[in-house]
Amino acid sequence: xxxxxxxxxxxxxxxxxxxxxxxxxxxxxxxxxxxxxxxxxxxxxxxxxxxxxxxxxxxxxxxxxxxxxxxxxxxxxxxxxxxxxxxxxxxxxxxxxxxxxxxxxxxxxxxxxxxxxxxxxxxxxxxxxxxxxxxxxxxxxxxxxxxxxxxxxxxxxxxxxxxxxxxxxxxxxxxxxxxxxxxxxxxxxxxxxxxxxxxxxxxxxxxxxxxxxxxxxxxxxxxxxxxxxxxxx
Length: 233
What we know:
Layout: H1 2-10, H2 14-39, H3 45-56, H4 63-124, E1 131-134, E2 139-142, E3 145-148, H5 151-165, H6 172-180, H7 189-203, H8 206-212, E4 213-216, E5 220-223, E6 230-232
Parallel strand pairs: 1-6
Antiparallel strand pairs: 1-2, 2-3, 4-5
């Protein structure tokens, strides 16, 4: 018992992966943003150069020179406004990239978690608490789900259910012989396999039907249901 507790406590949960990933993404993009903004030129750099030009050149008193200096000052103001807008755009892009990476991380974690759960279900089989075969209306109720079946599919399911009650495994040959009433020597394995395939098709969801009707290699087919959960009506 202590070993199990210690091993479980050391396991990494999806929540921890998400939190760690979010922190890593924020730190990486934060550092990248800082480096980027630090290397951007100062918004007032152009204005400072123009101001210096005004101060150091008192001789520029002509009309054309003053006009040129006014144009340079206006250009400096435009450059400052443009650079400020670039900073805002970069900030918005950084926020968008952070949100996108976090959403991608969460999606991948959920995808991996779902894949693990499906693998566990595939290993353990579907959990069926009750399987009721209704011969009168040709239907089967699996837990809370009800499926309408054809006469042939109902016969196949009934044979499998009765075999499960007796704890037997039936080959395709035996299934075909029991349903058709013919001797086994006159039947073939492929016909029984075809009946199983049609039954699975009528049950709908491929994964559920594959897990419900197990195919045991070199033995045959069996319902992955506890005999106590099966009821024939």
